[in-house]
Amino acid sequence: MMRDPYEPFGGEPDDIAGFTAQDLDGRTVDEQRAAAIADCQLCDENGYRTGATRCDHIDHAAIAERHRAEIAAQLAEIRARKEPPTETTDRSS
Ligand SMILES: [Zn+2]
Questions:
Q1: Spacing, Cα 65 to ligand 1 middle (Å)
Q2: Measured in angstroms, how far is the CA atom of residue 89 from the centroid of ligand 1?
Q3: Is CB count within 10 Å lower at the N or C end of the chain?
Q4: How does pLDDT run across 34-44, given as a tens digit for each residue?
Q5: Do the beta carbons of residue 33 and residue 21 sit within 8 Å?
Q6: What is the dihedral of CA 40, 42, 47, 50, to 10 degrees?
Q7: Mapping DSSP to helix (H, G, I), strand (E, B) and coil, where does residue 52 land?
Q8: Which alpha helices (DSSP H) does 17-89 contain, by range?
Q9: Would you say the C-alpha torsion 23, 24, 27, 33 has a positive or negative sign?
Q10: Can you give the residue ranges of every domain in the chain?
Q11: pLDDT, tens digit (0-9, with 9 covering 90-100), for 45-84
């Protein structure tokens, strides 16, 4: 693979020559990545989502959906706190 002369050490860590990290199962980085891509429903076979976005294999939309009720409750609480009191109190005197 050609290196970018302006960024010779750029790119993915596993692209750097001699880097042979393995996980506890003895899988190489390439094997781990392939497995993550295979398990992921969000990206194509190269690990990219639509619009050339690199996939982190985390379904952020699903996480947001799971916490939606909690977020809505907190927003309602904040809104209630910020709302002016319904009774007008005369503070001028
Ligand atoms: Zn993915």
A1: 18
A2: 56
A3: C
A4: 999 999 999 99
A5: no
A6: 170
A7: coil
A8: 29-39, 60-66, 68-82
A9: negative
A10: 29-81
A11: 999 998 889 999 999 989 989 999 999 999 999 999 998 7
Between the alpha carbon of residue 33 and those of residues 36, 49, 79, 80, the distances in Å are 5, 15, 44, 46
User: 């799971």: which residue's tokens?
Assistant: 66
Residue 92 Cα to ligand 1 midpoint, Å, equals 61
Cβ neighbours around 49 below 10 Å, total: 14
Amino acid in position 67? H
Integer Cα distance of 56 and 49 in angstroms: 9
C-alpha 88 – ligand 1 centre gap (Å): 55
Predicted structure pTM score: 0.47
Neighbours of ion ligand 1 (CB under 5 A): 40, 42-43, 55, 57
- 84 Cα: distance to centroid of ligand 1 (angstroms): 46
